[in-house]
Amino acid sequence: MKREGSTMKIQVDGLQFGTGYNGVLGPRGVGKTRLLKKMAQVEEGTNGQTCYVSRAMDSFHELTIKEYLCYMAGTKAIPREDVTRKVNDSIELMYLNRWADRTIGELSTLMKSKALVAKALLSDSQVLLLDEVLAELSEQERMMIGYALGEAAKERVVVVASNLGDSLEGLLDTLCLLHPEKEAAHVSANTAYSWVEGKVWEYVAPKLPQAAEGRIVTAVKMLEDGVYVREIADFVPYEEVSQVTPTLTDAYLWWAGQR
């Protein structure tokens, strides 16, 4: 990790992640976990300044949230006299007070994700690597956790790896796009949105649209009166159509379709 003034930078596989809110986006199996683990290995010698968190919690189902966080505090070499304060602070930051004495096995997916983020916030680690901790959450739930991470990202390197559809809309500073057949791209989130600004449409058609150059169908749903279609196109694809706000998934699919 290099520090330039108040900004920290990490370089892995030709990609550079700096202080702020960084996303890694791609489908399952594309290498997001490998990238985050490699970042953690690169930073191993930085006096515990890096925290890697995955969704693996199966071994802790019998522990309460508070017991789980106390155990994790011990693995992070937090001084014993600071453990109670650090654990309580993390519980409060993630609004887990009501669930602090519930066992991990009893928790909903949302509460488990909150507990994982609380674990990441326990220490003063300067690099937080969060591997798909927001998977299977609704957009509202992801944003709820996302805002808490956004506060941490003001002074740390925060990297959140997500599957397509699980990204943090409007919160990320940068975005790393991974694809099995393309070289990784690392751009500002604003740049990614600009790729598809004014190009995302929704409409109901009598039948599925035919594949055509410059058109990417991103969602289809059969309705009683036709077929709901969401697509990316440079032109108006249908007579009665609504232009909609693009998402990072739209930006990814547009990028993946470029030769």
From TrEMBL:
Pfam families: ABC_tran. Transmembrane segments: none annotated. GO terms for molecular function: ATP binding; ATP hydrolysis activity. It comes from the Bacteria. Residues 23-133 form the ABC transporter domain. This is ABC transporter domain-containing protein. The lineage of its organism: Bacteria, Bacillati, Bacillota, Bacilli, Bacillales.
